[in-house]
Amino acid sequence: MTGGPGERRLRPFPALDPEPDHRFTVRSLRWPAVVCVAAAAVLAVVLLTWPTSSPSQAKAQVKFTDRAGLVVFEQQPSGLLGTAAPDGAHPVILKKVGALQGSDLPVASADGRYLVDMEGQLVTMGPAGPVSVSALDQPAGAQTSGNPWLDASFADGGKYVEATECYSTQAGFNQSWIADLMPTAGGPDHDFGTVTDSAADPVSAGSIDAVPASPQAAISPGQCYSTGAIPDKALELLQPGQAPRTIITAAALASELGLAAGTPLEMSPDPNPGGSWLAVAVTEGAPHTFAQYLAAKHATVVITRAGKLVATSGLEGGSWSPDGRQLASCRSGRGRQSSVTVWTVGGATRTIELPGRHDVGCDQLLWSPDGSQLIYSAQVSTKGLTQADNQQHGWTVIDLRTGQVHNVSAPGQPAAWLPATAGAGR
């Protein structure tokens, strides 16, 4: 597909170069029949393989296809869900399922049974894709206007949704983020208390939280919708009915990074699919404006569940591969060619540029079920009349085996890349 103005269409393979001229030298006249037959055979091959079109026409005849798995996408601005093959083939809009609210893209549980968005809408999957949309109960006190959630992820095999919710009290004058665990099957939620960020623990019905340096600092007017940052004191593992367990303190993490004692940090945890490692996106200092955030130093530190350092990278967060051994991160912005970087934790880093793409910002990076490819989508403009106008329709497939990239035309943005049998057996 075509993204920004002037973008050229990308194709998976270079055109075959014309076969070079063949010159035949008769060194002996003792075998004229053999020579004639050989010459005729070679001439036939040349005539059959010599291109009858220009190199650009030959390129146009090459088509990328990848039918491995199922892509669930969201159509904008309708919010309707659809499905397609990764190469965009066989798109289906599921009008009977219902529409999602907002412009954010839902995230998928590791087992492919559910999707959830920032408005608390839960999508239940079947063998052929989404089958229903329902609303998770919003706890009393949660903000009801705009997006009440900062993020959401799935715990304990998709049985629970762990969300960082904005709570308000006293008519909205005091606000704070709360880690909240909600069963996907319905029922009472569990409030883990005030946090600055949280993520579901894949191996239990628990939450991995970045807790603020002081509870008082996390309760301030307009905090949930401001750019002000609150430094963290620790990452903690929280489970219902159990005492918090500290994974690592901000002081210890600062020491691991070689920072001066007392340096304030922001920590955003992201456990890998198996739950054995945590990728902690770290921002040095406590920037209070977007410009300060861009100027601040960032890193991604991978630690174990016990807080032991595994590896450090300059990536600003990332998306875990299905095997939990690699992190992928995308970069884009004005005047910068969009790219995707893949880091094998403790090993090499590889960057793949996306020719022709100069997006405002990437908004999705999905791994294929077998971990061999990535899907990228982005915001391509800031001049649209609505947020939906600024978003890329379709996606770009990146083949990590060859380094090839392929733009795919589709009527929406990708939300999940699941095995073709996702949701089966429910």
Write structural notes for this entry.
The model is unreliable at 1-62 (pLDDT under 50). This protein is mainly beta and 426 residues long. It has four helices and 28 strands. It has a four-stranded antiparallel sheet with strand order 3-2-1-28, with no helix packed on it. Strands 4-5-6-7 form a four-stranded antiparallel sheet, with no helix packed on it. It has a four-stranded antiparallel sheet with strand order 8-9-10-11, with no helix packed on it. Helices cover 9% and strands 39% of the residues. The chain has a domain at 1-16 and 61-95 and 326-426. The protein has helices at residues 32-49, 55-60, 250-256, 290-295, and strands spanning 70-74, 81-84, 92-93, 107-108, 114-116, 121-126, 129-135, 149-155, 160-169, 174-183, 190-195, 197-201, 206-212, 232-238, 245-249, 265-271, 277-284, 298-304, 309-313, 319-320, 326-333, 336-344, 349-353, 361-367, 373-379, 395-399, 405-408, 413-418.
